[in-house]
Amino acid sequence: MPEGKILKPPLNNRDIKALNAGELVLLRGTIYTARDMAHKRLCRSIDKGEELPFVLEGAVIYFVGPTPARPGRVIGSAGPTTASRMDAFSGKLIAHGLKAMIGKGYRSGSVVNALKKYTAVHLSAIGGAGAVLSKHITSQEIIAYHDLGPEAIRKLEVVDLPAVVAYDSAGASVYQRNGVIG
Question: Where does residue 4 rank: exposed (0-12), middle (13-18), buried (19+ CB within 10 A)?
Fold first, then answer.
């Protein structure tokens, strides 16, 4: 098992400020899944003042729509979704307490600004490694938006789920070259 900083959600500002772009982290504990439509519903609930299906403060959201589990497995392949698909919603969730997101690829300037303003990070997991990543998930339960099928919000228990700090809370990025993102 590779060595990395252990992160145990719910996360706080001290946890987040200790992370730097490029570092390996290993997540242990409870995280949640959500993709495009679930993000849209979460933001709509915030706008309406409705209770959310999980506590957003200190939470980690994994951008994943897992495949069905094979017999004897907790979950099917669980690889990350392209993070930029959630950019329209991420700022609002970060402003309401979300501390970390896991996806793949670049984030918009507005998301990077929200990470800096509210002390949060974006983590990147390796795309194409969903079968391997699923081995770090020890339990899963659909907790909201059942009608979205694989994109329903799930509560996952994870052990040493590996990810890299792609964007830290100071705005540094693994994608940054010569001071330019991209």
Answer: middle
Cα separation, 116 vs 21, in Å, equals 13
- Residue 177 in any domain: the answer is no
39 tagged catalytic: yes
Number of domains in the chain: 1
Amino acid at position 143, single letter: I
Q: How far apart are CA 115 and CA 76, in angstroms?
A: 30
Give the pLDDT confidence of 103-134 residue by residue, as tens digits: 999 999 999 999 999 999 999 998 778 889 99
Catalytic member of 39, 122, 136, 146: 39
CATH number of 80's domain:
3.20.130.10
Q: What is the dihedral of CA 13, 21, 132, 74, to 10 degrees?
A: 10
- Could you say which residues of the chain have pLDDT below 50? 180, 182
Distance CA 118, CA 179 (A): 22
Element (H, E) at 141: strand 137-144
